Amino acid sequence: MCFKRILALNLFIFLFSTVSISQQVSLKDTSTGIDFYIDNQRVLTYQKAKLPVPDGVKEAFSKSGFIHPITSPSGQILSRVQPKDHYHHYGIWGPWTRATINGREVDFWNLGDEKGRVDFSHVISKKVAGGAAELNVRQNHLDLKAPEAEKLAIEEDLRIKVKTADKGRYLVDYTTTIFTKVKNGILLDDYRYGGGIGFRATELWGDSNSTILTSAGHDRKTADGTEAKWILVKGKTGASEGQSGILFLSHNNNKAHPEPLRVWPVGQYNGEGNVFVEFCPIRHESWEIQPGNRYTLKYRMIVFDGEMSAEEAEAYWRAFVK
Fold this sequence. Notes:
Layout: H1 3-15, E1 25-29, E2 33-38, E3 41-47, E4 66-70, E5 92-93, E6 98-101, E7 104-107, E8 116-129, E9 132-143, E10 151-164, E11 170-179, E12 186-188, E13 197-200, E14 210-214, E15 227-228, E16 230-236, E17 243-250, E18 259-263, E19 276-279, E20 287-289, E21 295-305, H2 310-321
Antiparallel strand pairs: 1-2, 2-3, 3-4, 5-13, 6-7, 6-12, 8-9, 9-10, 10-11, 11-21, 12-20, 13-19, 14-16, 15-18, 16-17, 17-21, 18-19
Helix pairs in contact: 1-2
């Protein structure tokens, strides 16, 4: 066995053999959502209730069915909702943008257009076992301008699973399965936004204090429109290490893998609070969703404080797909 393979194997063993067995993962219901805890610290919330909008903002921008906040292991909030530049951005979420239904365009992403939206429907199951906490929910993609009346267009089963990882980190599996009962099916049109998994980062991150790296070696200046197995997003926080971040992994069974990316370039929206990344499987090619079929996309997030190397990111991806 060559030296590089031995080194990679040793790194893999280290990453997944040093998890503290003392950490407990749990779930807690609240009046607005479901919290995931590691020991006594909330690490993320799935939002069941519609989040009210600020005064003077169109009510259509209020929505449910997303993750916020997601925090680093030390408690730093890494996500953001309802930013003034994009009130329809909600932490970690993934509505489809341009969809064609019976010849009509429906947009589930841009809430202000009131053509479509995605909201929480109901909890399918919850489970805490084997050192992990798991939540399964149904989300409804609504066609608001259907000729006869508002209509259910796409149903989505979303699984969120949280488990501790090495070095005080933790992982989140985010698995989305979509299906439709629309007789003629739905075409998810190719577009630079939509579906997959999107992340609007904390307002503290901008051009000067955050970085992006992809599995293909691209940074924020060059990543947009490229394809990647993983994307590493990190920036300055109040953690004792000085920074925190999230590694997003795309499974190799996903459509269009390695997946196309939407990454806001440097200088977008005045340079601060302007970090947005997304795995976007329909960026370059449309996707036909037929009734009777189920379509699944699998993602994993590794949430951390401090530093993470490209070699570690690659090892996490290899563990995920195996």
